Amino acid sequence: MKDRVIQAYNQLADDYEFNVDQRSIYNTEYERPEMVKQMPSNLNNLSVLDAGCAAGWYTSQLIREGATVTAIDISPKMVEATKRRVKDKANVLCLSLEEELPFEDNSFDLIISSLVLHYINDWELTFKEFQRILKPGGQFIFSVHHPTMDIRLAKEGDYFSHEFIIDQWKRDGKIIEVPFYRRPMQAILNETLKYFKLERLIEPQPTEEFKKIDPKGYHKLMTTPHFLIINARN
Fold this sequence. Notes:
The protein has helices spanning 2-23, 25-38, 57-64, 76-86, 124-133, 147-150, 185-193, 208-213, 215-223; strands at residues 47-51, 68-73, 91-94, 108-114, 134-145, 163-171, 174-182, 197-202, 227-233. Strands 3-2-1-4-5-9-8 form a seven-stranded mixed beta sheet, with helices on both faces. The longest helix is centred in the N-terminal third of the chain and has 22 residues, at 2-23. The protein contains nine helices and nine strands. The chain has one domain: Vaccinia Virus protein VP39 (Rossmann fold, 3-Layer(aba) Sandwich). Helix 1 (2-23) runs parallel beside helix 4. By secondary structure, the chain is an alpha/beta fold. It is globular, with a radius of gyration of 17 Å.
């Protein structure tokens, strides 16, 4: 599975660097505004881990707000894109979230993980490591696919299953197979609560700018959420 995710996101790296980060309204006008809203109002001098940094959009924003940032991603091509974006202003590493992380205990004030965890089958080690490296009282914010979105791709239509799915994304006339895992809401919450205290659960809504650009898509998101955001504490 890990190799398939690396392959998919190596293929998607250019699209993320030059298109998704600027033009995808599902990112710019849907997921990101609410994720940013959940972050501390003052990030100055906070130590932050961007866990699954992709092409580095969040990394660059965190740096701009004065944070000391470590950014990690499983895809070498995404790591290269992030390095191009932030130069030497962050520590950018190619690492897997399914393995022990090379950071000291209590290293970070904040961990953010944007639309990454649904690529991981078992969150046990990942969350255990996040708990270890996050300072007491530190904040953990992550977004994933909403279970009501993923059910449309479920082979058996079983909402309560933990299921491996291969989605197909069309990019530049090519079909890229993107594998991920779907979970019911109770699994997402219970696995989070095993290691963290839940502060807030958010089913984001699109911005008014989204509505201007894509009224049909706006109505769809206002009636059927695509993403889920969890704000938790260590």
